[in-house]
Amino acid sequence: MSDIGDSDISDSETSEEDEQLIIMQEARMKNQNYLEEVVPEYSNEVFFEHFRLSREVVNTIAERYEATPEFHRDSGPYGDIGALNQVLIYLWYIGHQTASFRDVGDRFNVTISTVHRIIRRLTYFLSNLSSEIILWPNDDGKRISEEHFSQKGFPNVIGAIDGCHIKIDKPQNDPDSYINRKGYYSIQMQAVCDHRRKILDVFIGYPGSVHDSRVFRNSPLQNSLDMKCGRYFLLGDSGYPLQNKLMTPFKDR
């Protein structure tokens, strides 16, 4: 009886292991064809959910990337990795906060070193585009933004300013200064956005423990705000100082 019981347990464990192996193999087969067969079948809505940009914008980025010295056609187990697929790999990585290089490599069936090269190249490429993409609005742009903010009860406003924390690994130098109020390591990014949430100005680099008001005081925007806004204003939360061109909340007493 003991032998029979041991045999049943052994058979059960073997069966569970076989099922797990089948599941892993099916997942790997799916990932092998993810870019070639799965992604093209996504609806526009599902595509946006996964990659955070529309297909049109992604294709435009890929075309520009392919025409630059930063682009190199990497090779994977199933052939070359072209510009479009590299952009998709990059967008997946930056759009999923908890994704590691290994996670991305498994999903797209590429090596970790390939993922690292793609992330590095595309980060450099996109950084070089910032000067022609992140622009303060001209007079027409200000007027259009003002109309939209006015409809929401904020006349003469063309944008809003705020800070956000970009999570980083523990720095080697002065790590405590990078711990933000939520308890993780980060660097500060200050951004101004218009009514469409398009970034008009960005300033980045201060440690996570630094307050928004200090980041603002040390940013180039502090000294150029009057000139940039003209007769208009920006909105900011209570973390920012009230200024001629920067409106912050006040208590109705």
UniProtKB/TrEMBL annotation:
Keywords: Cytoplasm, Hydrolase, Metal-binding, Nuclease, Nucleus
Main subcellular location of this protein, as a coarse class: cytoplasm
GO cellular component terms given for this protein: cytoplasm; nucleus
GO MF term list: hydrolase activity; metal ion binding; nuclease activity
Lineage top rank: taxon: Eukaryota
Record InterPro entries: HARBI1-like, HARBI1_animal, HARBI1_dom
Subcellular location: Cytoplasm; Nucleus
Ranges where the DDE Tnp4 domain occurs: 161-251
Cofactor(s) needed by this chain: a divalent metal cation
Family as reported in the entry's similarity comment: Belongs to the HARBI1 family.
Protein's job: Transposase-derived protein that may have nuclease activity. Does not have transposase activity.
Protein name: Putative nuclease HARBI1
